[in-house]
Specification:
This protein is α+β, with helices and mostly antiparallel strands. The protein is built from two helices and five strands, in the order H-E-E-E-H-E-E. The structure holds adenosine monophosphate and zinc ion.
Length: 114
């Protein structure tokens, strides 16, 4: 728990969010400023600032995160197209320094992303 972290506060229940999934390692919430009809954030409960802070021991955690993302994508019938995105660092637009994976879907998407 990082006292200054909005996602730690959401996980602790002191800030409200719409939870889509919760287990012992991972939560998923609806993004407050959705960029697509489905925009869910899959977040490890442990405060890990960025993807570069992941270690070899976190391999199963990253697997769990993708498993949750794919389950939500299937539930929402997004098999035709969705993205799982990590914005890592200021140059990539990371604004919350508690690792999270964006699940985006439900509209056409172009490549490359901006
Ligand atoms: P990033 O810019 O990759 O760090 O993504 C941070 C995401 O967190 C953005 O898409 C925000 O809209 C989202 N966000 C920020 N505060 C909240 C909140 N209180 N509840 C849900 N999503 C949030
Ligand atoms: Zn945190």
């Amino acid at each position: 728990m990082n006292d200054d972290c909005i996602f730690c506060k959401i996980i602790a229940g002191t800030i409200a969010a719409t939870f889509v999934h919760q287990d012992d390692e991972v939560v998923a919430i609806a993004d407050i400023n959705p960029q697509a009809p489905t925009h869910v954030l899959i977040i490890p409960r442990r405060h890990i600032p960025t993807a570069l802070d992941l270690q070899a021991r976190d391999a199963s955690l990253v697997g769990r995160i993708h498993e949750v993302a794919h389950r939500i994508a299937r539930e929402r019938h997004l098999e035709n197209g969705f993205r799982v995105v990590v914005n890592n660092g200021p140059g990539a637009g990371q604004t919350v320094y508690h690792l999270h994976f964006h699940l985006l879907g439900g509209r056409p998407m172009r490549w490359p992303p901006g």
